[in-house]
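Course assignment 3, question 2. Fill in each field.
Student: A.L.
Task: Predict the tertiary structure for the chain below.
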Amino acid sequence: MTTEQTIVSASRLIEAPAGVIFELIADPARQPDWDGNDNLTSAAPGQRVRAVGDIFTMTIHLGTDRDNHVVEFEEGRRIAWRPSEPGKPQPGHLWRWVLEPVDEQRTTVTHTYDWSALADPNRLGRARWTTSERLAASVDRLAACAEAAVDSGRVDPLQPTEHPRLDP
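Answer field:
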């Protein structure tokens, strides 16, 4: 008997401070730069997440918007959200990022997608498509953005910086 894996994750050591990496994740306008799922296209600037209960809006590849309800937040360490169509109930899936500093310049990053509570059968195909390998692609692209910022000397971990979109 095969058991379907409804919680998938990917981890990696990134050669950048946790603060630099977290800025890329917590600012929705930067997320399309490193999205390895090819799902996100844009987000309006000025939506930087600061607390549980925040909601940020992203435009996805279908051209529609998703409200993302922040359900976990620890500045520089953890952020998780549950997406939904604007004004509609959350269908039950969750995206999570956990950052564990190894030292001042290196951070282990874990990205998790949990669809164990997904109640919308129309979303099951996309949920099944989101594998550990796809999450690893996001972590790898996030690493490239963070490490490029550090290597260029443009980084102050407490100040947001601009990051160019990386080609897949």
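Instructor remarks: The radius of gyration is 15 Å. The chain has one domain: 8-152.
Grade: pending
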